């Protein structure tokens, strides 16, 4: 007998009583019903302005937040941010963002997945979550996962209209817009950190040292 | 209201004054108090050591002696928790008995809980001058939600100043047979508690469970503190401390 | 991993005397206990959310067979390969086999407590695979050849000086002292391991049956790296970790980091489904999921089933006054604290862990914070009952318990015996009214006096109609 059958057999036997077949049929139905309904648990009410809440929570998680009404301003905001921190003015971005006027802001931006040596990675976001100040990133050919992971500075350009209240809302959006979850759904909440040594929080463990969120409506 | 008083085995043997202090408080609250003569132990020591059978026998004895009262009151959160929470659990296999135990449990109260919430005692007979700090015993706190009640009662005493210690809700390390089996660990936990008590500079450490109080007093005395008084809350409230 | 819990009592003595450890433990307590209490209130309806979380776990456990099959079907449909392991050794064999199959020479590993059950690293090294732990805490332990002492903060027992010494010795670099510098040094040393690893190994906090996904929470980003860069990813977890839907897992994620480290959310929550797509630039080509039983299935349907709800947040140990005083190593196996005191006897043998169920005051602090409402003290008590039934208690203890019960059921005899006892104790207490030694109970009197009784029982005084 394979390990699979042995384990499943033990689990089956643990439920004594009722007729096996009846039970199995009932269980399959109950599972199908639960999956079809995928009910929500209790979630916090999120009255008011979702972008404001998102911003407040993101700041708490040590992300930086900038805002502009005009997406074309994003390169200028980023250039200023990098200059203030004496960071290099070069990086990589998701293909959908290469159309922004990077070079007129003095930035050398390339549209490709990140490599180890890249210092700035610019991504969009599938959506963002106000409850915790979190980004939801989907992996894909046009949205490589490494861009938000390898560079020391991760910049995410977010459409404020894509800020939802909770993780449950984010899953609903995914169900509406995608046939199935991509290989990786990454929820990102601020710069990587560790508190393993003396429970003292240090930013920049294996991922980015800083995360800049730029709220800018897409047209 | 007719109240059956269960003194608990520890108070019965180690500090009977707490029993009389409790009676005085219950009478001050206008209760008709009855002390069933053949009461002994609630069975918790055996129950917590894995001796389910003896616990069942003692629970049945308790039921026979106390089922007829309007209320049952005990000067211990630990024993009250045993009766309220664990007796019905012991008889899960017997729905009828379990229901009777549940009904009895509903009417069973830790002393300060009863005085404050049920009897609504507003003026206590005792007087006390000095600073006290309060240790919240585990079962009373977590099984019966006893936290505000003793504080509210102490607050009615003009001479009492309550100085809270840090971590008043952390276990003192008593734990019944734990204190014997893991003496070293238990002593360390008591030591932590004593340090928090000493840091308040209080004249007395007050609590609602004699087990914890013996543990705390035992450690205080062993470490040379012969002045901090260790009192059951009933003793303070009734003025029967000595 | 070998179960050394038999040594518990001796370890307690050692740990209580370890000043460095005591300092480290006090830090854990302040950071994690205060951290949790600061953010747990963000959950609008905590009691309801905990009820919901417990119900989610129970839904799966009550029908684990079908939920596992649902998970397996979905995961397989997306290109993952699901393996089933009866024992820890099976896991090692399976993972070594996967490594061989894909020609793996180096592996980068993120934190997995299940892999600690298996001592997977040793097994892989023997199979010729070089394994690098990448979670900072686990990396430190790998360098020091030690086991984790906490399920969330594995290296809580070490201070930064010890880490600095260790790094200086092993990295052959000038000794750093700041925590940030130490972290930076580890990052730089570990970066090539991520980039060059053929295989990434991770745990999985949850398996989502709806989508066939593995969910991993991390803070450092190493979990993302080991599941993104290497061409093979192996996720190892227990069979009980299934959760029905994405909504259900959202409820659990709302509780897990808040209970664990006092964070509203961990930096990264990664939901991983299947292998990389044809056009993708990243992600593993092969995704293996190894499901370990190792004694879990036999808890189903038993009165210990509730333990399988556990989501490994560590809150029970952070709040446990016993753990706070002795740390995790004293417990002798993978899982310490209250949850470990139950899991170790259940998964690794009650006869090998006789102290663990007993080393608790039943203070209830653990159950009060457990996000999935496991009645931990009740389960410990049930283990004590098993010890009683199986004759595993000392003869002396069994006799004392039975004698007390016998006496307490005979009120007249009880009255007589207690009257004699309190008189004797009163006498022994002397003028000081303190007993310095208790024959047969030196566990008490080694560290504490015993306040002498008044010399009369309440019941006799009451019967005489008066006070003292
Ligand atoms: S038993 Fe509860 S508190 Fe302890 S680790 Fe498991 S889920 Fe967390």
Question: What would your notes on this structure say?
Answer:
The complex is a heterotrimer of chains A (219), B (242) and C (468). In chain A, 29% of the residues lie in helices and 21% in strands. Chain A has 219 residues and is α/β, with parallel strands linked by helices. Chain B has 2 domains: 2-118; 130-238, Rossmann fold (3-Layer(aba) Sandwich), CATH 3.40.50. In chain B, the strands form 2 sheets. A 4-stranded parallel β-sheet of chain B has the order 2-1-3-4, sandwiched between helices. In chain B, strands 6-5-7-8 form a 4-stranded parallel β-sheet, with helices on both faces. In chain B, strand 7, helix 12 (210-222) and strand 8 (229-232) form a beta-alpha-beta unit. The longest helix of chain B has 18 residues, at 183-200. The two termini of chain B are 30 Å apart. Chain C has helices at 8-16, 19-40, 46-61, 64-77, 88-101, 113-118, 120-126, 136-144, 160-171, 179-196, 222-228, 246-260, 315-318, 321-326, 337-348, 365-369, 376-389, 395-408, 411-429, 442-445, 458-463; strands spanning 80-85, 106-109, 130-133, 199-202, 206-208, 213-218, 232-238, 242-243, 268-272, 286-292, 434-435, 450-451. Chain C has a 6-stranded parallel β-sheet, sandwiched between helices. In chain C, strands 8-5-6-9 form a 4-stranded mixed β-sheet. In chain C, strands 11-12 form a two-stranded antiparallel ribbon. Chains in contact: A-C, B-C. At the A-C interface, helix 1, helix 2, helix 5, strand 9 and strand 10 of A face helix 2, helix 3, helix 4, helix 8 and helix 10 of C. Strand 9 (184-188) of chain A pairs antiparallel with strand 9 of chain C. Bound molecules: iron/sulfur cluster. Iron/sulfur cluster (SF4) binds next to helix 13 of chain C. Chain B: This is Lactate utilization protein A. Chain B: InterPro entries: Cys_rich_dom. Chain B: Residues 3-84, 132-216 form the Cysteine-rich domain.
SSE inventory with pairings:
The complex is a heterotrimer of chains A (219), B (242) and C (468).
Chain A (H helix, E strand, L loop, with lengths): L2 H12 L5 H18 L12 H11 L3 E4 L6 H11 L5 E4 L14 E4 L8 E4 L3 E3 L4 E5 L14 E6 L4 E2 L2 H11 L6 E5 L4 E2 L7 E2 L6 E6 L4
Parallel strand pairs in A: 1-12, 2-3, 2-4, 4-7, 5-8, 7-12
Antiparallel strand pairs in A: 5-6, 6-9, 10-11
Chain B lengths: L1 E4 L3 H6 L1 H13 L3 E3 L9 H5 L3 H15 L4 E4 L2 H14 L4 H12 L1 E3 H8 L11 E6 L2 H7 L3 H8 L4 E3 L15 H4 L1 H18 L3 E4 L2 H13 L6 E4 H6 L4
Parallel strand pairs in B: 1-2, 1-3, 3-4, 5-6, 5-7, 7-8
Chain C lengths: L7 H9 L2 H22 L5 H16 L2 H14 L2 E6 L2 H14 L4 E4 L3 H6 L1 H7 L3 E4 L2 H9 L15 H12 L7 H18 L2 E4 L3 E3 L4 E6 L3 H7 L3 E7 L3 E2 L2 H15 L7 E5 L13 E7 L22 H4 L2 H6 L10 H12 L16 H5 L6 H14 L5 H14 L2 H19 L4 E2 L6 H4 L4 E2 L6 H6 L5
Parallel strand pairs in C: 1-10, 2-3, 2-4, 4-7, 5-8, 7-10
Antiparallel strand pairs in C: 5-6, 6-9, 11-12
Helix pairs in contact in C: 2-12, 3-12, 9-10, 15-17
The complex binds iron/sulfur cluster.
The site of iron/sulfur cluster has 12 residues of chain C, from helix 13.
Protein name (chain B): Lactate utilization protein A
Pfam families (chain B): CCG
InterPro entries (chain B): Cys_rich_dom (IPR004017)
